[in-house]
Structure formats: structure tokens, C-alpha cells
Amino acid sequence: MSAVIIDGEAIAARIKERLAKEVECLKSIGKAPHLVALQANDNPGSRIYVANQKKSCEEISIRYEVDEQPINSTQDQLLKRIEELNAMRDVTGIIIQMPLPEGCDSRTLQGRINPAKDAEGMCPANVGRVVLATSQAALMRRGVPENYDEWLRESLTWNMPAPAPCTAVGSVELIRSTGIDMYGKHAVVVGHSEIVGKPVVLLLLAHFCTVSCAHIATTNLAEITRQGDILVVATGKPQGVWNGYSAKFKKWQKSPEKSKKPKKPDLSALIKADMIKPGAVVIDVAINRLPKALDDNGEPVLNAKGKPDMITCGDVEFANAKEVAGWITPVPGGVGPMTTALLLRNVVEAAKLGG
Ligand code: NAD
Question: Is 198 in the pocket of ligand 1 (CB under 6 A)?
Fold first, then answer.
């Protein structure tokens, strides 16, 4: 039987609807949310990201402002600017746009944001709160078992009273949306980054899953993923690296005697259907932009408009995986919209804390 497709767009839309009402209330008591994006680059990708953030904020009447800084700013200059934004009472949320100018360290800058204004929920204090929330949850499980699930949902996800890592919370919310009882389930997380993998592991522990975390050094990936009643995948790595192949191939063509013929990259997904436990909940966090296919020279095949024919996909082989999984998120339309909705939620939570 085909899996239930988890509709991240619809769940995110419901979250935003609720947030819009909260924004109205906050405005009426003089605590209007106001997100400032600190930007010190002229990167086209970053500009698109900023435009999308602005649109999402405007949808629910959150004030959004881009704080443009010179693209050659030093770390000290940006730290000083963050201090200034921290001190502004009307600024309730701060987000730092990547990439940063050379010589600037994202962790240092992120760590200087007032934790109560940290829109991404990624400053050390807020990541640490996830660790503490899990211990608190463990105590509650013993104390009030009858309303534990409700309490956990309120305290860890929806009503976490301070900014929390958006993508991780969004991924766990999608698991929760399936209605499965997470208590005692084996959850496998593939990827151990600070932004996704590690906070997801902690949140799953808070739901009393038995958690395995696989990463780049894991040698028996399929063996581990097949054990997951819940499988969260966040690597952003297809089997092979395609960009760069064409140059290597051309170099080899010119003088085949000088180097070994490069192997054509395998663009298939990391997680194949046979690596998934039948009936599992599969959350695909990754967002990969890949060529649909490579031509004989290793260049992406072109579409009808003569442009490289690219697709957006996750780390999971969706078409086959949905015939094995019980629930699965699509890419796009799964975790992505949840990340945006939870970023907005962080800004709203931050506004509640401020003033
Ligand atoms: P990252 O590069 O920081 O981390 C990648 C992780 O994958 C590492 O822990 C690494 O050990 C692991 N990994 C790499 N190759 C592996 C392999 N062959 N087998 C097992 N593990 C492997 O990436 P990130 O910032 O965590 O992002 C991961 C993906 O999630 C990216 O595609 C990114 O675009 C996406 N992402 C999506 C959202 C969203 O809103 N949907 C938000 C953040 C990140």
C-alpha cells in the first residue's frame, strides 16, 4: 500500500493562521513582532532567501527589515551591529544571512545575538534549552503520565516559550502529525549537523524514542536505517558529486594517457526504498538541486528553453520509497514550509519575551 504523503504546506499554513492571530494580539498590546535580517553579502541566493522571508513575514503582518551592512564588514563591525540590534527595544527578532564576509565566523556572530531575539533558535543558549527540555520531559513522564503527551507537545514544540531550532522542531512536528505514538519507537536520524541532525536527536529522545544517529562515518547505513520505525534524513548528499565532473572528464579527454577516466557520478538518492522499514514514518529534510541527467560530456541535459534541466529533490528515493513507507514527506512541500512557519513562530515567541 502506498504511504500517506505528509502535507507540510497544509500543516505550515495552519501554524501561520494561528500565528497571524497572535501577531494581531501582540500589536494590540504594543509588542509588535519585528524581524531584522542582518545582511553583509550580495549573494544572489541569499537575496532570494531574504525576499522569501519578507514575503512570509508580510503574510502574517510581521514587520521585516533588511539591515544592509558593507560586504567587506569585519567581524568586529558585525558584532557591534548585533549589539546595537540587541539593544533596540522595537527589534524583537534577528537573523543573520549567509554567506558572511571573509574572516567572519557564523558561530561567533550567532552566539552574540540576545537568545530572546534569536529568530533561528540556533544560538548556544537556545540549542541548550532543547537539552534541558528533554530532561524536564523525563521528569514529567514519571510525574503526570495521564496528560504527558499533551504536555510534551505544548512544552516542546508548539509552546516552547523561547526560540527553538526551526527545522528540527518542524521535522518532529511532522512526525507528530501522523498520530503515531512515538514512545519506545526506534528512530534513526541520518546526519548529525548542529542545525538539523543533533537537535532532531534530542527532540526524539524527549519523545522517548530509542534513537540511532548515522553520519558520514557510518559504515552499515542500510542496516541501521532499516531498523527505523521513524527515519529522519538530512544529509544533502546524493550518491555522487556532479559539479566538477565535466571539467575532470574534459581534462581526461584531452590527454587520456595522463589520468584515469573519471567515473560518471551516480545522481541517485542516498536512501533507497530497500533501506526503509515497511510502514515507517520517513521525514526527508534535504533539499538537493540536481541535474535530471548528465549528457556524455558530463554536463546537465538541457530543457526545452536551452537551460540545464534541474530538479529539486531530497535524500530519499521518493517514488519507490512511498510504496514501502507508512508516511513520507515530499520534497519540496514537506519540511521546507515547516521551517519557514517555525521561524515565524520564533519571531512571535521572541516578541512575547521582549518589552
Ligand atoms: P551538513 O552538510 O551540515 O550536514 C550533513 C550531514 O550529513 C553530516 O552530519 C554528515 O555526517 C552526514 N552525511 C553526509 N554524507 C553522508 C552519507 N553518505 N551517509 C550518512 N551521512 C552522511 O548539512 P545540514 O545543514 O544538516 O543540511 C542537510 C540537508 O538538509 C541539506 O540538503 C540542506 O539543504 C537541508 N536543509 C533543509 C532545511 C529545510 O528547511 N527543509 C533546513 C536546513 C537544511
Answer: no
The answer to whether the CB of 41 falls within 8 A of the CB of 99 is yes
- CA 187 from centre of chain: 18
Give the span between the Cα atoms of 197 and 123, in whole angstroms: 16
CA-CA distance, 172 to 202, in Å (whole number)?
10
Q: Is the CB of 287 under 6 A from ligand 1?
A: yes
Grid cell in block for residue 85: 540590534
pLDDT-derived band at 313, boundaries 50, 70, 90: very high
Query: How many angstroms separate the alpha carbon of residue 271 from the centre of ligand 1?
Result: 13
For residues 230 and 123, the model is more confident at 230
Q: What is the mean pLDDT of the chain?
A: 89
Domain boundaries, the chain: 4-118+339-345, 150-335
What does pTM read for this prediction?
0.91
The highest-level CATH class for domain 150-335 is: alpha beta
User: Residue 164 has what pLDDT?
Assistant: 79
Quick one: how far is CA 245 from the chain centroid? 28
pLDDT tens digits, one per residue of 83-134: 999 999 999 999 999 999 999 999 999 999 998 899 998 888 888 878 876 5
Asked if the domains at 4-118+339-345 and 150-335 fall in one CATH topology, the answer is yes
Residue whose CA is at the smallest distance from ligand 1 atom 34: 287
Question: What is the per-residue burial (b if ≥16 Cβ within 10 Å, else e) of 233-262?
Answer: bbbeebeeebeebbeebeebeeeeeeeeeb
The whole-number pLDDT of residue 18 equals 92
Do 165 and 120 form a contact (C-beta atoms < 8 A)?
yes
Enumerate the H helices of the chain as residue ranges: 8-28, 44-59, 75-87, 106-112, 124-143, 148-152, 166-176, 197-206, 221-225, 245-254, 318-321, 335-353
Give me Rg for the CA atoms of the chain: 22
Pocket lining: 329 vs ligand 1, CB cutoff 6 Å: no
Which architecture, in CATH terms, is 4-118+339-345? Answer: 3-Layer(aba) Sandwich (3.40)
